[in-house]
Specification:
About 60% of the residues lie in helices and about 10% in strands. β5 and β6 form a beta hairpin. α1 crosses α12, α10 runs antiparallel to α11 and α14 packs parallel to α15. The radius of gyration is 22 Å and the shape is globular.
Length: about 350
């Protein structure tokens, strides 16, 4: 028998961090966090989210920039390490602010986050020598925006950390108002919660996989910004699921994506000549970006995104993140399975 309890945290803080993450990684989020069965609706929604909150300072880029492992500094150091506190509901914005008040610790963690391979002696030197950290930044493979942000931060870190603390409080206040306005929706989510569907989605979907059924105590926390979120965390005795308010539709979409290719969907995806040209270009180059399509075919960004969305929805393309750029490539497994499906027509 599973004991299910609904808690406000950690979904609220996850939403707060997501707001900043979306701001600094918009292209990546609009590629990887949307439900492609309703891509236009989700794209419009996430664009509107940013307009609903006060502007975010560019100085905070380093804290929320998604690196190649798809993690950002705040999630790694201010969210994931506290999962043991989620069930006791002792984790909240006050905990985050308290840890942020230790500027030396934040400085050390930020160095280790962006320069993972340095030894302890180099880390210690970088904490006290601006020339040492400047050398690391100069020799790194980060893009110009990140290098510039790193230089600025290490010249005078405390004002930027205080700016982060202030803006987290500012956005936390606005987010609290949004949650209050969504109290009816949250109540409906609790009342209509489908545990079996969630378990099925975690077992068979394409995102995080896991099994909630083996835990006696399960805590559910809803997000009111990150609408398609499906994230599971496991502690020794409990499991925590963080779910966006559209988690049911997202699970349905992921389960469909995990099924065999459907010929009618494939046919729709390749029924437009431009999309055949896109496939040929990817085959030639291995990977492409939206800018490649704009330059090669004269597409607008919106038009390029539309074609790629249909092809991703069909399952024929994959994406990956390189810095702030999204790269699109052919899903070879999809076409291999598709050939097997089509084989019945020429083998009969």
């Amino acid at each position: 028998m599973n004991n299910i309890k609904f808690i406000r945290q950690p979904g609220f803080i996850f939403d707060l961090f997501f707001l900043f993450t979306l701001n600094f990684n918009k292209e990546y989020c609009l590629t990887n966090f949307i439900n492609y069965s309703k891509s236009s609706e989700d794209t419009g929604y996430y664009n509107s989210v940013l307009n609903d909150f006060p502007p975010i300072s560019d100085d905070l880029l380093l804290f929320f920039y998604l690196t190649e492992d798809k993690k950002n500094f705040m999630t790694k150091f201010f969210f994931e390490p506290y999962k043991e506190q989620f069930a006791s509901e002792s984790y909240n914005i006050s905990v985050v602010q308290e840890v942020l008040s230790d500027h030396e610790r934040v400085l050390e963690n930020l160095i280790s986050f962006y320069f993972k391979d340095i030894d302890d002696n180099t880390l210690l030197e970088c904490k006290t020598s601006i020339s040492a950290i400047n050398k690391l930044i100069k020799e790194s493979n980060y893009n110009g925006d990140i290098k510039s942000a790193l230089y600025s931060f290490f010249i005078e870190p405390s004002p930027i950390i205080r700016r982060l603390s202030y803006e987290l409080m500012e956005k936390e206040f606005a987010l609290t108002q949004r949650y209050d306005n969504y109290s009816k929706r949250i109540s409906d989510l609790k009342e209509n919660f489908d545990f079996e569907l969630l378990c099925d989605g975690l077992k068979n979907g394409q995102q995080q996989k896991g099994d909630l059924t083996c835990f006696e105590n399960i805590y559910i926390s809803f997000c009111m910004l990150n609408k398609n979120c499906i994230k599971s965390l496991y502690c020794e005795n409990v499991a925590i699921a963080i779910l966006g308010f559209d988690y049911i539709e997202q699970i349905d979409y992921l389960l469909i994506q995990n099924k065999l290719p459907e010929l009618d969907v494939f046919g729709n995806a390749v029924s437009e000549t431009n999309r055949i040209h896109v496939l040929d270009l990817i085959l030639e180059r291995g990977e492409i970006t939206i800018k490649d399509l704009e330059q090669e075919f004269g597409f607008t960004g919106t038009n390029a995104y539309y074609h790629l969305s249909l092809m991703i929805k069909a399952g024929m393309l994959k994406t990956r993140n390189r810095g702030r750029t999204v790269l699109y490539s052919i899903n070879k497994n999809y076409f291999q399975v598709l050939c097997g499906i089509l084989g019945k027509y020429y083998k009969s």
